[in-house]
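Box 3.1. Reading complex inputs
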Amino acid sequence: MNIFQSVIAQAIANGISEETIVLLLLLPLVASIVAAARHLIGFRGFGILIPTLIAVTFVATGIITGISIFLVILVLATLSRRILRKLRLHYLPRMALFIWFITLGILGLMVIFSYLGVSQLGVVSIFPIVILILLAEEFIAVQIRKSLREAARLIMETIVIALAGYFIFSFHWLRELALTYPLLVILTPLILDIWLGRFTGLRLIEYRRFKKLLK
Amino acid sequence: MFSKSNQILGVNARSLDYLKPLNKRKGRRIANSKLLTKKYLTKAGLPTPGLLAVFKTPKKVEEFNWLSLPDNFVLKPVSGLGGEGIVIIKKKAKFAGEWYLMDDSIINTSDLKLRILDILAGRHSLHNLPDKAMIEERIKIAKVFRKYAFQGTPDIRVLVFNKVPVMAMLRLPTAQSKGKANLHQGAIGVGVDIATGVTTYGIHRDKFIKHIPGTKRKVNGLKLPHWNTILLLAAKSQEAVPWLGYLGVDIVFDKKHGPVILELNNQPGLEIQKANHSPLKGRLNRVVGLEVKDAEHGVKIGRTLFAERFADRVMADEGIKTIRIWETVRVRSADKKRVEVRAKVDTGAWRTSIDRDLARELGLLKPDNILWSKIYKSGLGIERREVIGLTFYLAGRKIETIASVAERANLRASMIIGRKDLSGFLVKPRR
């Protein structure tokens, strides 16, 4: 335990940013939470990549800014899909057009914010914004493939999981814990993952789905 | 007390306990291709809808002679999911190269060609992989279903595990499902009693229903024709594709040809439990490990094990009957005669049991009536006990059940009736 801890301390002393180490140590835990949301609760979500990525971008941009950008992108994506539906276009050019719409929208938003003196958006690093813009492709794809209700549900579930991930990444005591007991924070998801991987009980939403059979 | 949630099959358990260990890659590949399914089923001598054409390349679409097709047919993607991309042609329209769809709108050859090219490009397949298209004979709806289904053809989903039909559901297309029989597209699911083929309870869009929405037609009480054949086809499908240990078989009922196997599903849904008001895991656990000789044997086991107890309804009709500890029952022998037997009602036993000599006398120990046998180790050494199908009449009620065979020659009662068969009865302990 102590060896692991001192290795981490040494790494920080050598110049690796503390933020990076903390995020890396907590990343497996967030991935486990995504898996738990699927198998214990029954969230379908988008796999591990997308919710985790959103959680990390939220950490980078701050929660309020992050969610506003996310919502703006979602609205723009849905609106532009309405517009482009009438044109018969190939899949990739159509997706590229969506990105065109959304990028312009975000640019406009930045300009407006800078005039209003809300400078928050301008100082945010470009990478989280680019990631959020590019993730729009997935959300549009799901809207195309599934019914609106289904897509809305999937996106809602993703936001909820991403928020859970965000809170794990930014809980003060969890971050402290990661630095003081790194081994614990690394081993917990290991055990959780194996347990989840063999879990054959009902998911939470299945208790509701089969309510009548449970009586 | 065991918790009821243990009896329900959820997504987690389905995947870990059944799909992963039992459904091999080869089986999944067969089920995911309607052409391969047809090939394997045909090889085993099982009926599938007639194949009229297969399109593998766009070139073949151009060359195809559309006038060679019969009056009505169905266009399908070979690897389509959930009934997507299927075009059902009702009949020829006035002009050559034009047809009516089921909703009486018109479709022409160039529309059909476009649809086929879409299919070939993978529009309806998993991950949009390139696909093939096929044209099959259209299944014509049987008369019994005509008033139950909207436009499309109802199908019967039979869940097969270890060659035993475990649960079944009738799926009725609705206006919402656009004539398709898939539940998540809005079709109605109706549970079916495995023993008799009589429908029980209905579900539609997550809701329990008693009538077909918008009508006064009850969903329960419909007897499906050729029920034994349907179950046999389902069990035989598993023999034909043994790489699928946990399998959904979709069977349609053609007006002319009778039951025909439409497709196999390697990941059958869980809603069937709701339509039957019955949890699956409990049923699967009763079948696991049984040595099932062949499809016929499997059907026999399924029909005796999973008979719906219509006790509740009987109770409502006749009230609760009172019986005594000693009752004279009439047991149906192999040659369908009713033989009087003095039986003891024993609420301490779960399963009914019958004396070996008596069972042999009645012809009930023939191999085709033995469901399975278990080896017991007792003080007398190793003993083999058969479990057989048994039908008897108690206080005027017909009871179809299973019974264990035991040496009861030295005991007063050559048959005891267990708790399992006593619902709807009240036992009077004294005279």
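In summary: The longest strand of chain B covers residues 381-394.
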